Records
---
Amino acid sequence: MLQEIILSPFRGFCAGVDRAIFAVEECIERFGTVYVNHQIVHNTHVVRDLESKGAVFIEDIAEVPTGSYLIFSAHGVSPQLKEQSRNFKLLPIDATCPLVTKVHIEAQDYFRKGYSLILIGHAGHQETLGTMGYAPMTLVQTVEDVEKLEMHNGKIVYLTQTTLSLDDTKDIVFALKKKFSNIESPKVEDICYATQNRQDSVKELAERCQLILVVGSQNSSNSKRLVETAKRFGIPSYLIEDESEINFDWLENVTTLGLTSGASVPEFLVKNVLNAITSCFGNISVHNLERIDEKIEFALPRELN
Ligand code: SF4
């Protein structure tokens, strides 16, 4: 019978998501209707809420009327898309997370210096699609991809998608270093603090809980990685959009449940999950793991300053 719920203190909005959502709200307030390229962050509830306030989410910028404001999502976009938006006479506002922008700048720098680039990431993810526009690069997703890689001799460097943790990339990095003795790592790891903190916290939960629920949308890369982290530690884990997706059969034989959420998840969704479980089980102890403050904030996109 469930007795305890332990919350990850590192859950919910990261600084990049906070900034992107605030940018959309600010634009709506200043300009009325605004167009947003792709989901501003990968969370269904956030997107619905912003739609109700006046945001229009599009996947093809040809749909945007000339002279409209167009916001680029936190995942970043390619320079080609930025150019296209200027050609269409749109007014772009770049809400790309500064940590993703850092990878874009690194990619351009390394390419200019004559490096061959390898990107560790997920094919088709919005961030990967954007980053691959900044320089020619080869995407690897698995160790098997590394084995098949053929690179000409010369300087090689790898970069990584920000929503993969050090654990997620370590086998691929090991395989790359084994295959290419001269390969260089980025000067500073591309992994973002929020991704790492949220995964480290799941590892702590995994030592104390029999099941971990992760609140997040199915298309949220960082939320899915949290589920994988728990499973890597032998703990069953499920990704749920909100309280309606809780299957109470999962909680049979669980005395301590871990609860966390991805970096694009509003806190009210975690509260709703918590309320649904506590109202079903009655008197349960609920507490947070200890945390050190993340203290990271990003300035608004310069177009809004
Ligand atoms: S998860 Fe990290 S890289 Fe992604 S938006 Fe948040 S702070 Fe930026």
Note: The chain has three domains: 4-13+193-288, 15-98, 100-191.
---
Amino acid sequence: MMEAGLIQAEGVDKIYNRGKPDEIRALTNVSLQIKPGEVVVLKGPSGSGKTSLLSLIGCMARPTSGRVLVRDKDVAKLPERFLTQIRRKTFGFIFQQFNLIRKADVLENIALPLFPCNMTMAETRERAEAILDRFGLSGKRNRKVHRLSGGEQQRVAIARALINNPEVLIADEPTAHLDRKLAEDLAEILSALHRDGKTVIIATHDPFLYDHPFVDRIIVMQDGRIEGVIPS
Ligand SMILES: Nc1ncnc2c1ncn2[C@@H]1O[C@H](COP(=O)(O)OP(=O)(O)OP(=O)(O)O)[C@@H](O)[C@H]1O
Ligand SMILES: [Mg+2]
């Protein structure tokens, strides 16, 4: 039997503001398959559709046409609450614009994904403290996020994405605000996730990331289409 794809896109189109004067076609006929444990990079110029594709893969949006399957389930056919469930159970997200709560402190931001999980406060705190420690953020646990540097905010965003121990990490331009040293730390984290058999999907135009040995496959995007796959 063929190994099942964890994530599959079949002939996916994404059109924003459909039928309006500002209609934008972001993705055209995109098909791909991602296997469990793969590290895949989406590479392409600004506006080529990387973030749009990540949103579809991560069940944050629905395609205009075509299908997105997560573990053989057609995402477009699921009611919103099931979609939310899949999102929480399967994915950790590092967003391009962090999406942190600026006026909340570091600990609150990191613990946020745990709140729907029926954990006790003590368990929540223990998990959050462990991950703070791992990311060198323990000393900043009570600092409001808007008073952190860009690199520190990036690390909070990464810690928050990993706190649920997700099977799939989705990272949108995760080195955008990092210097070389922090980018190397991030690469270490991603390598460790790869060794643990996690699936990682990264959108980036940073050669430091897409040329890294942990990358299994590069999907090259251009004008909303997949232009090529390396290795093909
Ligand atoms: N929410 C939205 N509403 C309308 N248009 C959008 C929306 N999000 C993206 N677009 C448009 O869709 C196209 C693809 O955008 P997308 O953000 O997916 O590209 P990207 O490859 O992630 O770019 P970047 O490297 O700058 O992050 C662009 O033309 C963009 O302007
Ligand atoms: Mg983007």
Note: The first helix runs from residue 50 to 57.
---
Amino acid sequence: MITSIRLVNFKNFADETLRVGPFTVIVGTNASGKSNIRDAFRFLHGIGRGYTLAEIIGGKYGAGGQSEWEPIRGAADEIIRFGQSAFVLQIKMNDFEYLIEVSGSDEASPGLFRVTREELKHRQWWRIYTSHPGRYDPVNAQNDDTHLLLRMDKTGAQRRLGHKIAVRPDQPALTQLREHRRIVKAHKELAEQAIEAFANMRFLDLVPDRMRQPAFPGQTVLGDGGENLPTVLREICDDPKRKDILADWIRELTPMDVRDFEFPTDPTSGRVQLVFKEANNRRVSAYGASDGTLRFLAMLAALLGTNPAGLYFFEEIDNGIHPVRLNLLMDLIERQTAKNGTQVLTTTHAPTLLTVMNDNTFENTSVVCRLEDTSEAIIRPVAELPNVQELRRDQGLGRLHESGWMEDALFFTENYDEAEDGS
Ligand SMILES: Nc1ncnc2c1ncn2[C@@H]1O[C@H](COP(=O)(O)OP(=O)(O)O)[C@@H](O)[C@H]1O
Ligand SMILES: [Mg+2]
């Protein structure tokens, strides 16, 4: 489980840390930097997929020219905070701590990114590797540009002094260790665990028209746009226990809504369609279903499907979803994340979501706020704002959010802290 992420000179953050829990909620006005946090998680996910820096940041295309991976928003020109030359992401997990520093291009070689610092630590085994740019290898004087030197640390089992290896700086070292012969098995295995944690993230950005398309049988992983919804739902319905759970959630929907599913196969294409049975027994195909219903179902399917991802990032969860359903979805996410170790992060503008969240989610809710007159933003846990516990009890967090109280409180405390620091 990821417990925090620190962003240094990444997009509009100078040095901010987001507390991450089983279910993490990120609020903030438009253009405060919420999606920039998502971009940081996407960067880590790109590492997990084994991509080079250029691919993670600029996108990757398959042999046929189809997009395999979308660029980070703003791509090479905007990933580093304006006016800075490098960014750092540091992530803490239950077992691991990982840090990467990426330096941008200089004028001579625009668009070129290099890893200039990287380290992986394990809570029990201490360090796995740390980079030592230039310092440890007097022979290899040019290593700053063409190599990144790693010092592999002694493992608990071996107690031998770390040796050094050189890796390419155009790709995170983490995914280069596999190729190295001089690395002990224990280190490789630990690195693979960290890679797995990064690889096992999903970024749902649901597109109703993609959810409406029939799917080929056997496609049981929900695509990031909601592709394969029919086959993912069919797989859930094939298991009577999970079908009951799904049906329970569906039953809570407003009348005239979905009561059951049917999955007819198109005889010519062999693809599976999604058909809803509504409360009045009328059948409606996915083509006729509302966007909100499809979005709601897709999130249900992601959480209740087999092999859920380790971490889901739902961008603007409230988009197109009625408050009643949103409350249901909150309840489902809180239960599923507490139960099976899946983590969910979401950005939202919906006050109702803040009103109904449980205490644990409240502890993991953060507000992103831009400091006046700059694009620079800060991230603070809402639970740490002054008097927030009382105000939450008396007025509800949703109302505080709506009135802009969080930003005001933040602004006040930040200025107050500054005044105190200066005295
Ligand atoms: N490299 C950068 N340096 C400083 N600010 C940036 C950089 N890239 C983006 N931004 C700021 O981030 C804002 C967008 O943040 P975003 O995460 O999309 O907002 P939202 O909270 O609405 O999701 C932009 O308006 C811009 O001011
Ligand atoms: Mg956004």
Note: The mean pLDDT is 88.
